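Troubleshooting log. The previous structure file for this entry was overwritten by mistake, so regenerating from the original sequence record. Sequence copied from the archived sheet and checked twice against the printout by T.R.
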Amino acid sequence: METVVSGIRSTGNLHLGNYYGAVQNFVKMQHEYNCYFFIADLHSLTTHPTPANLHSSVKSVLVEYLAAGIDPEKATIYVQSDVPEIAELYLYMNMNAYLGELERSTSFKDKVRANPDNVNAGLLTYPVLMAADILIHKATKVPVGKDQEQHLEMARTFGNRFNRLYNTEYFKEPVAFNFSHNLVKIPGLDGKGKMGKSEGEGNAVYLADAPEVIRKKVMRAVTDGGPTVENQQKPEEIQNLFDLMKVVSTQDTYDHFNNLYNTCQVRYGDLKKQLAEDMINATAPIRERINAIAADTDYLRKVAQLGAHKARESASKTLREVREIIGFRSF
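Regenerated output below.
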């Protein structure tokens, strides 16, 4: 089976965008590929979380991966910092990464603009650590969104550069991979862009959100004054609500409100109430599993230890061979 690697930063709970855009596909992939799904706690250090927040965020993502249906017996779920081989490969790859190419990274430039007082070396070398995450398992497929394609290209660059430098064909080129033919983009509730953790608390609906929290968030979603002519094009904030409804509601419900909009009879309050209830129903099974798994400390410990063992088995083999290729040898 081909190897797939994907990670998610441990910066809080998973939201509907994470679930429908990625995790739902992970659940299907685990039956057909050799999957490594990791919690990127090393990456999260660029924003300097407190020790308590770092641990609780890692736990949240681990719990929600399991609650969403990822099976630790079928896929390898692990915490990035439990696999020290990644950090060592990151060091070796940094020696072959150049300042100019790292400074040209779109995500680095965006982060510098957004946080000019926190331009740390970890932000600059973020793509190198991402490359190490992928190359450590010699992955050939990486599920990425549009905003991560440049990082994947850089992972190919670093792997190929290593091969040229040491006259080997050790690292294969990882390619972008979309398991589903239909890419699901989940918009936020703020009327613009995709759902995300960094866009403000009210923008994202989290898998762990209680029903009353979901209702409040959805009722505050941005809308306009309503359609003024039949069949007019929906503005972005309204299209976003219909796109969300397309994911969590039945086709009949979507068609009902779409027809009301097209005939200038829609009441946004009714639409939002329906959307909120459909979100609550769609996330209810996961929310119940989250609460049960979060309370089972022994089970979480076993999952994390199993994942670390499986991930280190793969990573240590790669690192042993990389060290030999570079020329590190014991006396």
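Residues 297-326 form the longest helix (30 residues). Archived copy saved in two places this time.
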